[in-house]
């Protein structure tokens, strides 16, 4: 990653980013975007300018699609699955070698604590490792058919795939989306979020160092309404992957529908963790809290609702409240920080509006983490807040706040727990805490969501585990082998030979 640039860091020192940030990558070459316009990234820990990025637009997207098609007709398309796997393995090793640097960039750009940024870099490497090994293991089938025929199926790439990646987990979502698409032999056009994309740009440079052929991966930063809209509506993009808000996902799907293009949508969530009276509460506590405040709550699968059976409600509430009061909120690069800033002033203001409205309605607060008076005045800090005995129909329990806010909801028995858990527009993830094996299976089957975790939450990243939602949480699946199926087309061949 040559061509060092510096930016004002979280402690006021100059931090070497290590590469030019204001360019697009098209056909293996970095260049200024069409028109030369740029946007400013912000350091959310300070509220200060971090670095410029390219403001790509429709012309850049068209050039990127052309480059992807050229790669498919040339060096990239000529590789077999084993060769693609070896390239992904080499790229995964590059990511591991640069994990600390990537973690620092993620902390600066997104505002997540350094330890969380490093975990994301390790997860990116693991995605690449998984898809490297899986690339030559996606098989067709031979189908029983009439006498005199042999029928079989083939898995083939879509062609050019578009990837619109959000700001909250750039590395992880690039890994699960772009990694799987490349493993299947697609050529990718990637539009990272305008709020945070340093690690995406760094990843693209590492991909070139690992030997990825020019045009296999193209990156066009820019605004959603410009570069993103151009990518979603491009007539020669054959598949779209989008992670983000429900409203924007609907626009992406509508644009893709005009071209009859399949879309994978991973949208919002209001995910519950359900704690029954027989649960191992001590084992559950770290998951109950961390799944709500990780990345300052800016996680689609955040456990924003904690449902607690009434006999243990007070004990669980008090234990969670104690952990909230002990949380340390601070700059992303500071040691020992549990919660960093949220991504922007706008995001902070939206969260604070939710909190103020709840207070005006008289919703009780069980606990809130303290904010140090010495935090930078320009930083986008929100005190992690735990609300007590929230009504299941309250806005706090229904709307995705996307901040470090959790609500506690008491319930009475399985039927009540299911009514509350399934009673939102979302259906992404759920957690169930109980020692009763029969109840574990009943709940897992009855919950309306894409993933259910029993006596855990998140399964430590679970690269192998298909991920996606139902209802307003989206459709399609990424991660695991399901992602490879989604990034491929099934072709049926019937041969009459007599």
Q: Kindly state the percentage of residues in helix.
A: 25-40%
CATH top level assignment of the largest domain: Alpha Beta
- CATH H-tier superfamily of the largest domain: Aldehyde Dehydrogenase, Chain A, domain 1
Spans of 5+ residues with little confidence (pLDDT < 50)? 1-14
Q: Give the count of helical stretches.
A: 16
Assess the beta-strand content as a share of residues.
15-25%
**Mean pLDDT across every amino acid position:** 96
Keywords: Oxidoreductase
Pfam families: Aldedh (PF00171)
Family: Belongs to the aldehyde dehydrogenase family.
Organism: Piscinibacter koreensis
Give a concise summary.
The protein has 498 residues and is of the alpha/beta class.
Write a structural description:
Keywords: Oxidoreductase. Belongs to the aldehyde dehydrogenase family. The chain is α/β, with parallel strands linked by helices and 498 residues long. The chain folds into 2 domains: 277 residues, Aldehyde Dehydrogenase, Chain A, domain 1 (3-Layer(aba) Sandwich), CATH 3.40.605.10; 191 residues, Aldehyde Dehydrogenase, Chain A, domain 2 (3-Layer(aba) Sandwich). 38% of the residues lie in helices and 21% in strands. It contains 16 helices and 24 strands. The strands form 7 sheets. Strands 16-17-18-15-14-20-21 form a 7-stranded mixed beta sheet, sandwiched between helices. Helix 3 crosses helix 7, helix 5 runs parallel beside helix 6 and helix 10 packs across helix 11. The longest helix has 21 residues.
């Amino acid at each position: 990653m040559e061509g060092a640039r510096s930016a004002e860091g979280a402690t006021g020192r100059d931090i070497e980013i290590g590469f030019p940030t204001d360019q697009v990558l098209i056909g293996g070459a970095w260049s200024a975007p069409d028109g030369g316009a740029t946007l400013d990234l912000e350091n959310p820990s300070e509220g200060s300018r971090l670095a410029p990025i390219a403001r790509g637009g429709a012309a850049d997207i068209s050039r990127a699609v052309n480059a992807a098609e050229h790669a498919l007709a040339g060096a990239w398309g000529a590789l077999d699955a084993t060769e693609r796997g070896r390239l992904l393995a080499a790229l995964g090793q590059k990511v591991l070698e640069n994990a600390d640097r990537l973690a620092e960039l993620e902390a600066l750009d997104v505002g997540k604590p350094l330890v969380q940024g490093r975990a994301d870099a390790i997860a990116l490497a693991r995605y690449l490792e998984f898809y490297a090994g899986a690339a030559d293991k996606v098989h067709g089938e031979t189908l029983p058919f009439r006498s005199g025929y042999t029928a079989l199926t083939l898995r083939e790439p879509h062609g050019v795939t578009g990837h619109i990646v959000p700001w909250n987990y750039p590395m992880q979502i690039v890994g699960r989306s772009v990694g799987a698409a490349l493993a299947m032999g697609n050529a990718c056009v990637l539009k990272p979020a305008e709020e945070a994309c340093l690690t995406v740009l760094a990843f693209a440079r590492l991909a070139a160092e690992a030997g990825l052929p020019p045009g296999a991966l193209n990156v066009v930063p820019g605004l959603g309404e410009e570069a993103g809209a151009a990518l979603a509506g491009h007539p020669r993009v054959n598949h779209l992957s989008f992670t983000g808000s429900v409203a924007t996902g609907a626009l992406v799907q509508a644009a893709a529908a005009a071209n009859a293009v399949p879309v994978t949508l991973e949208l919002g969530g209001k995910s519950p963790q359900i704690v029954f009276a027989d649960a191992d509460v001590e084992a559950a506590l770290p998951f109950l809290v961390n799944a709500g405040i990780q990345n300052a709550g800016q996680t689609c699968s955040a456990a924003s609702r904690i449902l607690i059976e009434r006999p243990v409600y007070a004990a669980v509430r008090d234990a969670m409240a104690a952990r909230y009061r002990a949380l340390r909120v601070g700059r992303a690069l500071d040691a020992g920080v549990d919660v960093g800033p949220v991504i922007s002033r706008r995001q902070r203001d939206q969260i604070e509006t939710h909190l103020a409205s709840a207070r005006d309605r008289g919703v009780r607060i069980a606990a809130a983490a303290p904010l140090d008076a010495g935090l930078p005045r320009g930083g986008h800090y929100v005190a992690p807040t735990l609300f007590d005995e929230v009504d299941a129909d309250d806005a706090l329990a229904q709307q995705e706040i996307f901040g470090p806010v959790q609500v506690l909801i008491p319930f009475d028995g399985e039927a009540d727990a299911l009514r509350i858990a399934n009673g939102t527009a979302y259906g992404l993830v759920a957690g169930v805490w109980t020692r009763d094996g029969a109840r574990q299976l009943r709940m897992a089957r009855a919950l309306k969501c894409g993933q259910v975790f029993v006596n855990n939450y998140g399964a430590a990243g679970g690269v192998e585990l298909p991920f996606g939602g139902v209802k307003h949480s989206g459709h399609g699946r990424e991660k695991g082998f399901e992602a490879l199926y989604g990034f491929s087309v099934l072709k049926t061949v019937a041969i009459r030979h007599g």
